[in-house]
Amino acid sequence: MFSYRHAFHAGSHADILKHLTLVHLLKYLQEKPGALTIVDTHAGAGIYNLEDGFAKVSNEAEGGIFRLTQYIESCKKSGAPLATSIEKYLECIDAENSDGNLSVYPGSPFILAHLLRPQDRLKLFELHPKEIDILRHNIQQLPQAKQIDVYAEDSFARLKGLLPPPSRRGLVLIDPSYEDKQDYRYLEVALEEALQRFATGCYAIWYPILSRRESAALPDRMKKIAATHQRSWLHTELRVENAPGERRLQASGMFVINPPWTLEKNLAEALPTLVKALGLNDGAKFLLKSFEA
Ligand code: SAM
Question: pTM score > 0.85 for this model?
């Protein structure tokens, strides 16, 4: 426990799928003026230096955000149309790199904070003893700091206590490290409890696609949970390569409960571009499925 540091994975293909989806969800929910409560159950450090430290060691951003931005530049030069959700996502990345040099990658807390309106509130959970200090320090620097609560607590146990939010409008990002095999089970329990208390909330769950049994079973288990509560869902996956036997993460997925009707159309536009930009061999592909309750 606690060997996971998200800085190693900042700006990876998995972050791109997760954060692009997240930006679309939040922007959709913000089309109505009512206050939103946004919960990020697994926050990490908030923002990551791509030029130094862990991120530089792993270089996962090289195959992720650097590759994507280069591809998008070439599309712009050739006048090719860009998917709106890619543009909106990249605007959030650019906002933290105002000198035009991609030197930092904002994690979910910074992306969400950047998009907060005055009436919105953001709740961040982080358990790692070092990450929580870095997160707190990073959040204090933000102009939106007063709208953000940071909890050094186990979000799987605490999520239900925050639901339903006062305005009954909420977005919950659940992005565990899955470092502990039990995370799969804790996630299911937390999701069940959350839906019992706040069935109309929008829940976005990220997961890695690994050979481990729990990972392969997770999408079907989440579909079952959604069905029990008669909720609509959207399921998407992005695979950047098929390299059996290699230990690096080659694919990941997002499962969204109560997705906005616009999400599927926007992902259908964006995913082929992500496959082209980030794909490493002809095993690169995406999946996009949904169910309306
Ligand atoms: N959401 C972040 C982003 O997109 O930028 C990345 C989060 S990272 C995948 C998962 C984080 O959850 C790690 O920093 C880990 O320390 C933290 N964590 C693990 N178990 C937790 C728990 N039960 N409650 C809160 N945080 C936890």
Answer: yes
